[in-house]
Amino acid sequence: MPPGGHTANSASELAPITALRRDFVWGVSTSSFQIEGATREDGRGPSVWDTYCQSGRIANHDTGDVACDHYHRYQEDIGLMQQLGIQAYRFSVAWPRVLPRGRGTPNEPGLAFYDRLIDAILAAGIQPWLCLYHWDMPQSLDDLGGWTTRESVGWFADYAALVADRYGDRVKHFATFNEPSIFAMFGHGFGMQNNSHVDSLHRIIHHVNLSHGAAVDVLRAHVTGCSIGAIHNYQKCLPSTPADCQAAARCNVYWNFAFPDPQCRGMYPKLIQAAIEPHMQAEDLSRIHRPIDWFGLNHYSPSFVKVDTSARLGFGFGQKPVGIPQTPIGWPIMPEAFRDVLLTVAKDYELPVYVLENGFGGYDKPDDAGAVIDNDRIDFLRVNIGAMNDAVAAGADIRGYFVWSLLDNFEWDAGYSVRFGLTYVDYPSQQRIPKASFHWYRDLIKTARGRPER
Ligand code: FCB
Questions:
Q1: Helix H segments across 223-303?
Q2: Among 411, 417, 418, 422, which residue has the most ligand 1 atoms within 8 Å of its CB, making it the best to mutate?
Q3: Average pLDDT of the residues in 317-335
Q4: What is the pLDDT, as a whole number, of residue 310?
């Protein structure tokens, strides 16, 4: 069956999983701003995304104010996770919920929310995987320069200590950052923020890397028996035409290497060394290169890159080759690229890999009977999980796979127009409707867990 194609038995045909470990971890991922809502409740401070939502640049002027109302409906959502049979749930803590101004006095009601959430996840027999930063920086800290100032390293380390001390008795899996290259590049590399320029991008890269290293040390010191990683969006950057090869190579450095290389190998890629140098202090590389336990990989599709001399970094995004199947939102479906990336990452960084996001964005709608039959998503998951199985068979040490996402949610600039969930959310009523892919994933997990010991 071609990737993205339909078959009559889409819902019954599972994915090949023959090469996966018996203790393979199946999960789902979400993030705070995308699902929680309650942005002004219980003392939460504003984040940069609350501010950005006021800029008029989000589709349909959507905001995160209500989102999936997970802040109030988390128990129902954990019920969905139980039905899925996942072993682990990845979520993020909203920094401005626990420290409304980013530093200073913690907000007890905000901290108590994550106590309730974590306790309920554990009571459901699911491992909580906590990500410290999924893009919602407290606005007060951004006002002071955000990641462009080296002071951010201390702010982040203090925030990490607060989270570690509060939840470290119950949470053992921690990620420092989600997709640092994406928020750095899209915030500052392509000029989406009014005051951005290229030098601020290089400062951000370095300070986020230092913040990662500082948080690893804090977590290690404060949480006994913890398992730590960072989550990178690592996807092939392919030239749109043969004339775009150099542009694609540049994109590759910023998108894929700028964070994992210093974090996992203690060095910056050559192309950006000179630009980072003015911000570098003695011993910085060893502050960044701290021992971690795994590599978190988010993967959706390769990017097709073109030369763009008017763009700050000299590259932009070009035409995709004709004939490649795409998701409804135009992301190429290329499971073989996923397999290659898994093999590359496992070999280059010499760490066990957890796939912490992979998923399919579309415009799902319930049918007349109220069911959401998302066979395209099932096909996408099947071929991608199959590609992962191939990578494992070829020697990559892959230990887990988490679908993005449990629920349809606030998809950044696309607002609520794009849906990635295994569960449909009817936003006006907040009703949750498990899609066909939900049942498919549940069956896959059940089958995978039920395999006899080898
Ligand atoms: C990733 C983000 C995640 C979600 C998916 C679709 O880049 O980490 O929050 O938006 O894309």
A1: 245-252, 260, 270-276, 284-288
A2: 411
A3: 96
A4: 86
Q: Distance of CA 219 to CAs 138, 190, 216, 266, 292, Å?
A: 21, 33, 5, 19, 11
Out of 13, 41, 108, 179, pick the active-site residue. Answer: 179
Residue 339 near residue 398, CB atoms below 8 Å: no
Residues in contact with ligand 1 (CB, 6 Å cut-off)? 31, 34, 178-179, 182, 233, 298, 357, 404, 411-412, 420
**Is 283 an annotated catalytic residue?**
no
User: Among residues 268, 406, 351, 381, which one has the least CA distance to residue 1?
Assistant: 381
Handedness of CA 364, 134, 60, 196 (dihedral sign): negative
HEC sequence for 54-89: CCCCCHHHCCCCCCCCHHHHHHHHHHHHHHHCCCEE
The three-state secondary structure class of 412 is helix
Instruction: For residues 278 and 274, give the distance between their C-alpha atoms in angstroms, rounded to a whole number.
Output: 8
Where residue 312 falls among pLDDT bands split at 50, 70, 90? confident
What is the Å distance from ligand 1's center to 369 Cα? 30
Does residue 451 carry a pLDDT above 80? Answer: no
The answer to whether 133 and 48 are in contact (CB under 8 A) is no
d(CA 294, CA 225): 14
Contact residues for 394 (Cβ-Cβ < 8 A; gap 6+): 339, 343
pLDDT for 8-21, tens place per residue? 455 679 999 999 99
CA–CA gap between residue 27 and residue 24 (Å, rounded): 10
* Cβ contacts of 250-254, under 8 Å, gap ≥ 24: 250/313, 250/314, 250/315, 251/303, 251/305, 251/313, 251/315, 254/181, 254/185, 254/189, 254/313
Give the span between the Cα atoms of 236 and 239, in whole angstroms. Answer: 10
Whole-model pTM: value is 0.96
pLDDT surpasses 90 at 168: yes
Contact 64, 134 (CB under 8 A): no
* Cβ proximity of 5 and 382 under 8 Å: no
Q: φ, ψ for residue 312 (rounded to 5)?
A: -55, -40
Whether 179 sits among the annotated catalytic residues: the reply is: yes
Where do we find the tokens 């964070």? 259
Q: Report the distance separating Cα 63 and Cα 376, nearest Å.
A: 28
223-279: per-residue pLDDT in tens? 999 999 999 999 999 999 999 999 999 999 999 999 999 999 999 999 999 999 999
Give phi and psi for 21, each to the nearest 5.
Answer: -65, 155
Q: What pLDDT, on a 0 to 100 scale, did the predictor assign at position 7? A: 44
